[in-house]
Amino acid sequence: MKIRKPLLSGIAWLTIIFLLIPVVVVVLASFSPNANVRIPLQPLSLNSYRAVFSDSKWAEALGVSLLLATVGSIISCGAATMAALANNRVTYTGKNLVEGGLLAPLIFPHAALALALYSIADQLNLIGSFIGVLLAHIVLTVPFAYRPINAAVSKNDKSMQEAGMSLGARPQYVFWKLTFPMLKSGIITALLFTFIISFDEATITLFLKGPDFTTLPVAIMTDIQEGTGLAVPAISAMMVAFTLLFIFLADKTVGLSTFSEKR
After folding, report:
1. What share of the chain is helix, strand, coil (3-state, %, to 5)?
2. 232, 234, 235, 237 alpha-carbon torsion, rounded to 10°
3. Domains assigned to the chain
4. Over its length of 263 residues, how does the chain's per-residue pLDDT go in tens digits?
5. How far apart are CA 155 and CA 144, in angstroms?
6. Cα gap 262→12, rounded to integer Å
7. pTM of the predicted structure, to 2 decimals
8. Whole-number Å distance between alpha carbons of 215 and 59
9. DSSP state of 70
């Protein structure tokens, strides 16, 4: 055991370092004069950040991404909350099948899921529309919302709601005054993480978006393909900071352990 523990610790630290190296490189590149990292390090420059703030396309792409992530995360969490309440409080045939269907997008590769969503959107004439991309983001993020909300529902004491109903309180009142406050921690966690996932999504968006709008991740990919790319390190560094801020807020609000709790 004494031999294994240092070995496991070493592997863990190597894994952490391996995961953090790209982040460090991106941050360093964002302060480089030509958006590249060279040894020895070049003098610090804000050229990459100037390229971001001097081109309106980045602000437009950011606005679309924020709108998609905000609306999508709210709808995903609403759907996940109803599904979690139904699966924990109602007995019906095929409950496990329904829960498996909710979590299915976690299993499929993004490209396969994107192709399936493209086929459905094509049948509904939603290719190139904002609604089509929004619905795809909702499908993608519902499983991530369901997990923490379901954990909160499974720990929820139903006796208080039952007492409220027995005293004549209407279902809407019981939900907003009793059930919702008990589920608030799980819902906040779900909102934060579904927002991040939707905000960072590029593959599915690339399949479904039209020429009239684009999201920030897709704009980054396009900029790299066109060979300009000066603004990309700065955008990427800001997205890393944005994601870390959301994770910090989730940890301080409800704790990251919500995702690892078992029913």
Report:
1. 75, 0, 25
2. 120
3. 51-260 (1.10.3720.10)
4. 455 677 778 888 888 888 888 888 888 878 877 766 666 566 777 888 888 888 888 889 889 999 999 999 999 999 999 888 888 777 777 777 877 777 888 888 888 888 888 888 888 888 888 999 999 999 999 999 988 888 888 877 666 666 666 666 676 667 777 777 778 888 888 888 899 899 888 888 988 887 888 898 888 888 877 766 678 888 888 888 877 887 777 677 666 665 555 44
5. 18
6. 24
7. 0.78
8. 10
9. H
H/E run at residue 112 = helix 110-123
Token representation of residue 167: 């005293």
CA distances from 50 to 53, 127, 235 (A): 5, 34, 11
C-alpha closest to that of 204 among 70, 26, 100, 72: 72
In 201-231, alpha helices (H): 203-208, 216-225
The answer to whether residues 195 and 69 touch, using CB atoms and an 8 Å cutoff, is yes
Which residue type sits at 140? L
State the alpha helices, DSSP H only, in 124-168: 130-155, 158-166
CA distance 81 to 239: 28
What's the CA gap between 132 and 128, in Å, rounded?
7
Cis check: omega of the bond before 43, within 30 degrees of 0: no
For residues 26 and 233, the answer to whether their CB atoms sit within 8 Å is yes
